[in-house]
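Example record

The entry below shows one chain as it appears in the dataset: sequence first, then structure tokens.
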Amino acid sequence: MNEQSITPPDTSIPEPLIRKKNHFSMIWILPLIAAVIGGWLVYKSIWEKGPVISIIFDNAEGLEAGKTKIKYKNVVIGQVESIKLDADLGHVIVMAQMDKDTESYLTEKTRFWVVRARLKAGQISGLGTLFAGAYIAVDPVHNGMPSSTFKGLDTPPVVTMNKPGGHFILKAERLGSLDIGSPVFYRQIQVGQVEGYLMDDDGKHLSIKIFIDAPHHRYIKKNTRFWNASGLDVSINANGLTIDTQSMVSLIIGGIAFDNLMDSRNNPVAENNDIFTLFDSHGDAMKKDIMKKYQWLLVFKGSVRGLTKGAPVEFRGIHVGEVLDIDTVFKLNSGEILISVLIETQLHQFLPDNTTFDDAKMKKLFNTLVAKGFRAQLKPGNILTGQLFVNLDFHPREPEQKIIWEGKTPQLPTIPATLEEAFAVFNKLLNRMGKIPFEEMAHDLRMVVKNLNRTVKQGDIVLKQINRTVTPELGLTLKQVQTTLKQAKKSLAAVEHLVGSDSALNQDARNALNELAAAAQSMRMLTDYLERHPDALIYGKGDKK
């Protein structure tokens, strides 16, 4: 067997030297940089991320999640993230992400509203949203408790919180043509706007909130008078017809004006949220100070047709009050149904200027006035419409009466209306004429005629005797006397024929009495009809045209 020889390894080939690298590979720099940048962005996003708030609106018109911005002074401070309906489906809840710097003014007083194109109170706003879309505006308020839930406004506020000026409240019985944004004028210069209005709890008055820009708000004094300047203020006086308006704007959309009384220089400036009265016209507003009003109860026996609530109460042509209510009163003792009229008067119309009266002095004053004949009476104010008003005046010839102070409202003495008084006098005249004894007078006249006829016959006999005894020279004279007596006899016979029981004169007299009675009855019917329909004097008894 052949043995193979083993060749020993070549020791001349060197062994490899393995060394370990100590430097960092450049390829790992890029991932590290990306991780650092990503971490920084995450940190910055979390750190700079502001609060999430919810805003409740009636609807989401013009709003889009992820697009609609929240702006303050046209600077974006947030964005709408989501929009959803609330549980009762009555409102929408807008979730918005706000910037971090907004936390300090997200308080309970902060207001949000949607800005879109609007036309109201003669003003156009939000036209830019026609191209850029609607956005949510904010009126920030730093004072207040922090909040994350807000109720969005239906309409943009007229005045923002940081606007300088003064807020005031006006009390009125009706709104008229006023609306949010209606202008407020001072000497025909617009110095403010109507912020809003609200019905009072009593349901009889309105509270109108207005804002007066600075520095004009310092012209509002404690005795400043406000009036409704909507439309035209038309007045007729001795100088003729006067037409006044604040501006064309107030003529179209309404407005409010104010001014101060002549003695307001030393009057203090009004404070914020002071309450004033809103008068209907400039004339009403600038009257002298209105003192305490007093209510009176008037009781009438006749008809009050034509008298309505709000009818004026006048004293010799001066407006001193108005009618508040009209009702019926049933008297149990007499069984009568009377008409009660409640009026309200202003005491200062009966007093000298700068006179202060308490209730005791007022009671004494009116007791004195009534003792001198002070009475209330209904009078026609317009013959075409038949409207009545209450007139206060002195009637010294009226029977003495007193004020009934017992009860809730004092009762002032009254007298019948002018038309009723005339009808009463006419009825008395007719009654007196009806009591005249025309038949007895005719009977007496017939007796007188008979006695006269008897006397004439006796005179005829005497003349015949004289004719036999006197001389013939008197014959001619006696014949003439006899002829005269015959004529007188014929005349007396004719008179007797006229006034006899079956004579035409007697019959005519009876017919005249019957016609007079019928005329009296017709006159009573006419007076009753005119009392119910005074306008028949103009239109007649037929249908009104």
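Notes for this example: DSSP finds ten helices and 24 strands in the chain. The chain has a mean pLDDT of 78.
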